[in-house]
Amino acid sequence: MHKDVVAVDKGFTPLSLGKNKWRKIIELSTVDHVVVWKIKELHGWFYKVLTNSVDQSSSISWLKYGNLFGETESFVCAIMDEVIKTNNYRKHNIMKDVTPDICRTSHRPVESKKHIVSGCSRLNGEYLHRHKQVARIIYQQLALRYGLVENEVPYYRYNPTPFLGNGHALLYWDRSIVTDRFITANKPDIVVENRSALRVLNYC
Asked: Which domain of life is it from (predicted)?
């Protein structure tokens, strides 16, 4: 009896079960899937990252080595996919509670991954401290390469001197540079002046 009712319903009800159009599944091509993927707010970020000028094989090679715990690997992948349980993610994606999307450290909206990485006023000092630690390692390695220091010191004990130099190279640490035109960021972390190659390198 159900089949007969479905066959007869050709416009009698809003569903129009007798018409065969609703039974056809719309199949999207690969190109259409990519277009839908690109316009998604959350998952579209992954496509944008893939299409940028990024060395894809190098950026995922750490997964092949197997020297990280499984939990650490999954946490890094979650960060890359922007599915960290921030207040913004809980409010707009999980939607199980009415959590305000205010940052828990600076108490300003919006606590997203971008805000944590680059916009949180309370965490800026931590990022700058980490940045300076990495810059110290680079500074010492450059000083060793150009023969400006003789012995290597462990990175956690190394305090860079503002200026190192010899007949071949000059090395500056955290020093302002005078330019012809006004530049807002005129204080790079490291400046290398290679006299033999007649070139200057800035590391920010």
From this structure: Eukaryota
CA atoms within 13 A on the CB side of 5: 4
Phi, psi dihedral angles at 88 (to 5 degrees): -65, -40
Distance CA 157, CA 41 (A): 45
Q: Are residues 114 and 176 in the same domain?
A: no
pLDDT tens for 161-177 read 999 998 888 999 988 88
Residues whose CB is less than 8 angstroms from the CB of residue 115 and which lie 6 or more positions away in sequence, other chains included: 88, 103
Closest residue by Cα to residue 146 from 169, 163, 129, 119: 169
Host domain of residue 89: 85-122
Least Cα distance to 165 among 156, 175, 155 occurs for 175
CA–CA dist 130, 125 (Å, integer): 9
Supply the DSSP symbol for 90: I
- pTM, two decimals, is 0.55
Residue 47 within any structural domain of the chain: no
Q: For residue 63, is it within any domain?
A: no
Note the pLDDT tens digit of each residue in 117-162: 878 888 888 888 888 999 999 999 999 999 999 999 998 899 999 9
Distance (Å, rounded) from C-alpha 91 to C-alpha 88? 5
Any domain includes 129: yes
Split into its structural domains, the chain has a count of: 2
